[in-house]
């Protein structure tokens, strides 16, 4: 299955090294502002200053603030898509279903870690834009398909009348739990250091549950 088209906005890649470095700093500054929930209030001048750049460079590379916002969302979604695609066939190196499930959930957690602000922005834009929401749905479908590929060697250990459906549904439940944990900073009373173990247990328990 090919990766979904996650393009939200087209920005020409700068030809000069200094300009590419400036663009990367602007993206990092935007992520920092999203993380502290200050992106909406920040001016272009403030973003440029935080990125050790200039207002002129900002407008030359990005055009406007909304383009920066869309690039940040696009980059987050692409990271998740790339991480998911890397799992294709990875389950073959695992010993059993439990180990393959842990590989899956650890991969998702690694992408989500430290990106609360970006995820919050993804959820907000999805609630406002049908077109963006469709992109998110495409990504979710892609993630589910790759998860099935990763767990393919152990489908006989999935106690469900439709193992692929169970994996796809279970992965969406896990991502929903990670959405809550990432945005709110908590998942019930679950300690942060227990997140990896318990998220893996959540998916494994569902897949090994009663028919």
Automatic annotation (TrEMBL):
DNA-binding region: 43-62
Gene3D superfamilies: Tetracycline Repressor, domain 2 (1.10.357.10)
Annotated HTH tetR-type domain residues: 20-80
UniProt keywords, alphabetically: DNA-binding, Transcription, Transcription regulation
PANTHER family (alphabetical): HTH-TYPE TRANSCRIPTIONAL REGULATOR BETI, HTH-TYPE TRANSCRIPTIONAL REGULATOR RUTR
Protein name (Swiss-Prot/TrEMBL): TetR/AcrR family transcriptional regulator
Native species: Microbulbifer harenosus
């Amino acid at each position: 299955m090919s990766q979904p088209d996650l393009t939200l906005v087209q920005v020409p890649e700068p030809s000069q090294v200094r300009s590419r470095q400036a663009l990367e700093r602007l993206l990092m500054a935007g992520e920092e502002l999203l993380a502290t929930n200050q992106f909406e209030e920040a001016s272009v001048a403030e973003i440029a200053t935080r990125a050790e750049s200039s207002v002129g460079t900002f407008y030359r590379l990005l055009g406007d603030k909304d383009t920066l916002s869309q690039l940040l969302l696009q980059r987050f979604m692409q990271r998740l898509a790339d991480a998911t695609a890397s799992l294709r066939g990875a389950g073959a190196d695992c010993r059993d279903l439990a180990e393959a499930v842990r590989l899956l959930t650890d991969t998702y957690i690694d992408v989500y870690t430290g990106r609360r602000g970006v995820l919050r922005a993804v959820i907000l834009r999805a609630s406002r834009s049908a077109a963006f929401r469709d992109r998110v749905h495409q990504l979710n479908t892609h993630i589910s398909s790759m998860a099935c590929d990763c767990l393919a060697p152990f489908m006989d250990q999935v106690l469900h009348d439709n193992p692929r459906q169970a994996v796809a549904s279970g992965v969406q439940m896990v991502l929903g739990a990670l959405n809550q944990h990432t945005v709110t900073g908590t998942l019930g009373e679950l300690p942060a250091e227990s997140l990896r173990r318990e998220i893996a247990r959540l998916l494994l328990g569902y897949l090994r549950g009663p028919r």
